[in-house]
Specification:
The complex is a heterodimer of chains A (313) and B (323). In chain A, 80% of the residues lie in helices and 0% in strands. Chain A contains 13 helices and no strands. Chain B has helices at residues 46-53, 81-87, 99-102, 109-121, 125-138, 144-147, 157-169, 187-204, 215-221, 239-244, 249-256, 315-320, and strands spanning 4-15, 18-30, 35-39, 62-71, 74-75, 92-95, 175-179, 207-212, 224-229, 232-238, 304-307, 310-312. The chains are: A mainly alpha (313), B alpha/beta (323).
Chain lengths: 313, 323
Amino acid sequence: MLRYVAKRLLFTLPILFVVATCVFQLARVVPGDPALVILGDQANAEALQALRQRMGLDRSLMAQYLSFLWDTVRGDLGLSLSSNRTVWSEISAVLPFTIELTIAATFVGVVLGVPVGVLAALRRNRVADYVTRLLSLAGLSFPAFVSGILLLLAFAVQLRWFPVVSRIVINDPLTRLHNLVLPSINLGLIMAAYVTRVTRSSMLGVLTEDYMRTARAKGLSRRRIVWSHGLRNALIPIVTVVGLYFGTMIGNSVLTEIVFNRPGVGKLILGALQSRDYTLLQGLMIVFAFFVVMVNLCTDLVYGLIDPRVKAR
Amino acid sequence: MSLLSVSGLTTEFRTDAGWRAAVRDVDLEVGANETLAIVGESGSGKSVTALSILRLLPEAGARIAGGSCLFEGRDLAHLDETAMQAIRGARIGMVFQEPMTALNPTMTIGNQIGEVLVRHRGMPRAEARAETLRLLERVRLPSPARRIDDYPHQFSGGMRQRVVIAMAIACRPALLLADEPTTALDVTIQAQILRLLKELQRENGMGMIFITHNLGVVAQIADRVAVMYAGRIVESAPVDEIFARPLHPYTRGLLQAMPRHDRMQDLEPIPGAVPSIRETIVGCAFAPRCPLRIARCVEAPPLDAVGENHAVRCWVAAEKVPA
């Protein structure tokens, strides 16, 4: 097991290398001079030149690339061009909020999506199935900012159950959780739609398996057959989707963070894009890539827990 | 008084042409300690008969359209689902054809057997585990204590079938339904499994319905034989009688098509195939393939008694035999 994890971690290195290279190139391809963006139109040529020199932008592309790689390996993501603080301190200041939102949204997505998907499979081609399929389609086609505004209107403005603007109180976990409810439902509903669809189709496949008939022949209750024998065998595709979606949700959280006015990585990306903050963008993408790779690793480990045949291979 | 008494059982499937019968008006009797073999080609309705008795057919696409299955004083065809659950696995066990897929791949074999004991005999987990070990020993799974926590994919087909059998007999059922339990296995393993089933039957006094298309297996295990064709029983007789005096042309055809060491050369296949469930059958279903066909075969023949415990559904065969 430990050897497997170590091997998988080793495999992530080339992935991160490729990501770092792409990120570096992309940031250079985008038109616009960062020095000009930082100092503004009125800056004189000398000041611009001095800033370029300080940022290392006057060196050859290769030299910039090599020093970028070396710094990244050491965990030094550089200085943010727009704020002059380190990129890592910029990211780490808001990353916990995004991770908290992502985990809460995944929780909503799974807790809602899996049971609904299973029920849809059991009631195949009956009313409940059609209703779920329709709702999940609606969930998939609804943009997050629209659903966010609707949720705010209903539960914050009309019913006043939740705050309109999320205050972030670090040392009061209850308030923090309270503030998290609406944003995580907003982000989680889309995921629930995905999870419902995958659960339904995966479960439909499992329901016709021979071992399900064996379970019935043993006289087990319907509940035990479906949830204990069926769901476990249907889990692999579900875990795959949850893992994939969890990985991308850090980026997808941007709209939710803006609508609910939460601090988070999403807003940081937007700011970095607007101010052409190359170093911050690079740092964000590397942190993303690392995150996605880690989630994938966890997904693979979970496969082994669900299905003993995966471990054997 | 027989253990299970099926009469007039008719099971229908939903097709694009409406509900069509896969099993028509089937009568069966099985006593304690007795083995009834149901024989027929694929599609003859023998598996559907067994699944109908335990009510294991998919709810959406199949229904029991008529008849009764009296077992221990109750009609299984009309019991509600909860009552059926209490009978399945407890009073009636079932062994399936495909040991490779009949077990849940994500559960240890120990837990799969143990849950039957927990469910029906209310055993605490530890006790169920001890009983599971005893059962695995009984079905002669090698080194059961070491293997009880293994998963199905770690076993061969024969070993898995032993696990399935252990599961089916865990609660000492009065009746065992065995649906082609040896078809997917090597010949040597087949013989071992048949012997095991025979032993278990003798120990527990079980009645057994043994479904197969292999007449060699029938000769080894059955007391009585029912031959099915296109959803109907076409001949039924004690096992010796079927081999010594087969009357229905289909039964004869099956015997002709059976390889035997003393006549390997002249195997005679039955021409044609079993009619599909979508076809509307007029008269005798076997007539299109029958060498003895006469004009009267456009009328459906009844199942006529032609001797003690011997009945045949054929105008020609019933005629020849002095009643």
